[in-house]
Amino acid sequence: MKKLFANHGRELSALLAIAVMFVIFSLIDPIYYSGDNIRDIVEHATIYGLMGLGVTGIIISGAIDLSVGPALAFIAVVVARQAVSGVQPVYCVIIGIMIGFAMGLFNGFLVNHMRLQPFIATMGTMSVFRGMAYLYTQAVPVIGVPRSYRLLVDGELFPFIRSSIIIFLGFALILHVLLKYTCFGNHVYAIGGNEEAARLSGVKVKYTRTMIYAIGMIGTALAAIVQLGKLGTGDPTTGIGYELEAIAAAAIGGTSMAGGRGTVLGTVLGAILFSCLKVGLIVSGVDTFWQYVATGMVIVVSAYIEVLQARLSAVPGGRREGKAAH
Amino acid sequence: MSEPMISFHGLIKHFPGQTALDDVSFDVAPGEIHALLGENGAGKSTLLNVFHGVLPLTSGEMLIQGKKVEFHHTKEALDYGIVKVHQEINLVPEMTVWENLFLGMESRRFGFLRKQAMIAAAGGYLAQLQCGFRPNDRAGALNVGEKQMLQIARALLINAKIISFDEPTSSLSACETATLFKIIRGLKAGGITILYISHKLDEVFELCDRATVLRDGKYINTFNVVDIDRPILIKSMVGRDVALFATRHRPSRTEMDKPVLRVENLASDANGFRSISFTLHRGEILGFFGLVGAKRTDVMRAIFGADCVSAGQLLLHGRRLVNRHPSQGVKNGIALIPENRKEQGFAANLTNADNIAMASLAKYLRGPFVSHRRKDANARRRGEMVRLNPNDPAFPTRNLSGGNAQKVVIAKWLSTEAEVMILDEPTKGIDVAAKAEIYALMEDMVEKGKSIIMVSSELPELIGMSDRIVVMRDGEIAATVDKNEFAEQKLLTYAVEGTAT
Questions:
Q1: I need a surface site. Which of A3, B73, B174, B448 has the fewest CB within 10 A?
Q2: Do residues B224 and B257 both lie within one domain?
Q3: The domain spanning residue B152 has which CATH number?
Q4: Which candidate in B198, B337, B399 is best for mutational testing of the A interface (most A CBs within 10 A)?
Q5: CB of A157 less than 8 A from some CB of B
Q6: Residues B197 and B298 in one domain
Q7: Do B188 and B289 share a domain, yes or no?
């Protein structure tokens, strides 16, 4: 039990926070635990969660991707146009994933081969992707996505279980296995932990980090595909600020911005926590503007919890210095 | 004896689950150079941290010139004229020398910096310390020794009464060390009291007046350095007879008829070495000696494949190696245990198991997936081989002492079953007992038929451990010396002058 807490402290505290939040909001307004509302929470969590998962891998490798919001918009409009023009829904999904992969490769190329700083490189592509979304649509939303497509990506398979949730959890599972149980994933952690040590251990740093950018962007592609199914419209203005929500979901879930640490489960819980809060605030009738403040506070508080936990779990600073200094 | 400069009375410092200082009391006389000795974790650094106000005391008191002091912050100690010259040097590399010198103590008039006055003053201090760099140089361009001088200049600037040094020579060349000692003696002549932490006993005998030994947080004794010899000091430091000197306890394993790695005319324009040729045999420990700047590390990185070469070739078992990327070095069975383990050896954020598995992940696959059970089992097994403490796969490597972190790096390379192990300053900055363990490990490795290249700046260690020693000077091999001809004087001469006189 103690070991469980030591290894999964962040996940457990996120779970606890979700439970507490759920109880409080339900007391404020019983509507909160109605079926419709829970579905709302999950739907919100799906979009941020998919994007957050992709970003998690990139952050673990010691980098960042700011371009996922506009990337979502671009992928959504392209897929929407395909779907509207009659391409089979399955092919639409595959096209979306491939475009996402290519966009991720491009980010990875900039960061790893042209050696740009991840922050700057993806800030640049953030603007590029947004521009591409506008150019592709001339700023006119793509409407009329066929029902067949929407059923495929967001249809209710069983009561309460939509295919979008399967997509979310499926991607989470694949990413989890990839990060924890393959050489590639272990290398991602190693690079984020110490790039030079990893390189000198024979890890192919450029390849690994380029690939994690590409794989990460698949998360955003799936988010775009799902969102398109939910809305039925490919809107080039969508996804504004989503990169921050995605990064926040990862951060709340315990992904270290310094790299080398983070889990898929943490980000999934982080996304759910985030969406519990947002929906809760809406249900309890809190002013929209306060919602921004509240979500911001959650990020700050969770970051502080991370600091506290690091302090508690680590050997006291002085001894560490004293020992490591020699 | 006159009133002591510093008196420590019953210092106690508890950390959760550990007592770092346990009733430590001793005096430091004014104007002396006082060594603090002890193994890792003996409490030297904690004592300094308490003294400089970095850590609060649990109980006990400190007196400076008979007056009780209590520091809650480094600044308060600084105001008392107590300055620490750091082991890891804190400078703003983008700023100039004079800006660093005056950082936080800028001279101002009407709110504006008095730039010219500060530059002139900086020049004065640098001249006093006989530094070869100028106030307007960029601090980042200085070498380690020069950065240290800059810190000492800062101490002079604030009229320090007490200066403490924590392993000041660990990154210095012999020549820089000599300069530093001259400066320290000058400081002493100027009436400044010096606290000096070092692992190198030679330095203590050369430089210090008295030495206080700590062990496991307890005060052991204070010696007049002239009255004692090395064995006495070592015995009180380790509390048991550990053979300090690196010696081979088992016969040499070299099989001269079995060359493993042949290096032929290796050269690199970018890294400044040329015509490097030597042969490493099975079971051999080949020492590499040279002064700082001899390019030994660069040669090793090139052999491993971390850097490119411009000419020459490597033959492993007669097969020509073209290694352009470390991954090929790893595949070919070459291991590099780097000099800067913190920057290049391990990832602080990861656990022991992850660090140990970093170079050999493919071994723990079951099907396409990494088996964590196998990974942990390997970490535990290798940890036992290198006597890692604590040998816990889930333990975060950042919390290990220097010696144990080095063992993690060695365990990482043992996991690859590499045939050629390149150890670059393997015992740098680790305590006596851990050094002895590393030497024993090296003997284990050659017994198993591995070959070792050991780069070191510590001659006693090289002489004790090597079968042959290659001496480098200025990017070239000055000499290759056989075991029966090892002599400190001779090796040093090669390293300094290139030829024996």
A1: A3
A2: no
A3: 3.40.50.300
A4: B399
A5: no
A6: no
A7: no
- Whether chain B has a CB inside 8 Å of the CB on A179: the answer is no
Contact assessment for residue A2 and residue A313, using Cβ atoms and an 8 Å cutoff = no
**Shared-domain flag, residues B150 and B262:** no
Task: Tell me the residue range of the domain where B488 lies.
Answer: 253-333+453-495
Q: Quick check: A194 contacting B, CB < 8 Å?
A: yes
Contact B431 A180 (CB under 8 A): no
Residue A17 maps to a domain: no
Q: What confidence category does residue B16 fall into, taking pLDDT thresholds of 50, 70 and 90? A: low
Q: How far is CA A18 from CA A184, A275, A285, B23, B125, in A?
A: 32, 10, 19, 48, 61
C-alpha–C-alpha distance, residues B168 and B86, integer Å: 8
Q: List phi, psi (to 5°) of B54.
A: -75, -35
Per-residue pLDDT band at B70 (split at 50, 70, 90):
confident
Residue B9 tokens, joined:
């009375």
Mean pLDDT of A158-175: 91
- Sorting pLDDT into bands at 50, 70 and 90, what band is A318? very low
A205 is in which domain, residue-wise?
24-312
pLDDT at B54 over 80: yes
Q: Is residue A137 part of a domain?
A: yes
Q: Is the pLDDT of residue A142 over 90?
A: yes
Q: B345: which chain A residues are within 8 Å (Cβ-Cβ)?
A: 197, 200
CA distances from A264 to A174, A255, A267 (A): 10, 9, 5
Subunit contact B326:A261, Cβ cutoff 8 A: no
Q: What is the pLDDT of residues A175-187, one digit of tens each?
A: 999 999 999 999 9
**Does the pLDDT of residue B200 top 80, yes or no?**
no
Q: Check residue B138 and report its DSSP letter.
A: B
φ, ψ for residue B248, nearest 5 deg: -85, 125
Name the residue facing B350 among A180, A190, A204 (closest C-beta).
A190
Q: B446-486 pLDDT, tens per residue?
A: 999 999 999 998 788 888 899 999 999 889 999 999 999 98
For B392-429, b/e burial (b = at least 16 CB within 10 A) is ebebbbbbbbbbbbbbbbbbbbbbbebbbbbbbbbbbb
- Mutation for A interface: B48, B215, B358, most A CBs within 10 A: B358
Peptide bond into A89 cis (omega under 30): no
